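Sample entry was shown:
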Amino acid sequence: MSMAAIGMIAGMALGFAGYFGGFGAFLLVAALGAVGFVVGRFLEGDLEVGDFFRTRGDRRR
């Protein structure tokens, strides 16, 4: 699935949550979407656990 289609689906989900559930539901869906995105990138191998805990000067890339 293309990134544009995934973005459209995420936007629609946030729109429905905001319209039907209010601002609190919008924030909950956005936060869970961000967590899911990070977990997905981690499982694909694009992120490492150490990337979240290193300081700026300690980056080797």
The radius of gyration is 15 Å.
